[in-house]
Specification:
- With 66 residues, the chain is mostly helical.
- It is elongated and about 45 Å long.
């Protein structure tokens, strides 16, 4: 029972983090200027990366650093 509860708590944290990322991406979209731009280097994020992960904050090179 305790192990299952721990798993559920981890899943809940992951879901909250995902929701936060999606909300941040939506905010960027409504802001109109920063969606699709890497928060680290300022370069455009590859559209294929954004298609796979719409809430991506970093280009693939910068994501590898983090």
């Amino acid at each position: 029972m305790t192990a299952e509860r721990g798993e559920v708590e981890v899943l809940a944290v992951q879901l909250r983090e995902t929701l936060c990322g999606v909300e941040m991406a939506l905010g960027k979209l409504t802001g109109g200027t920063t969606y699709g731009v890497c928060e680290d280097c300022g370069q455009p994020i590859d559209p294929l990366r954004l298609e796979a992960k719409p809430a991506a904050r970093y280009c693939i090179n910068c994501a590898a650093k983090h």
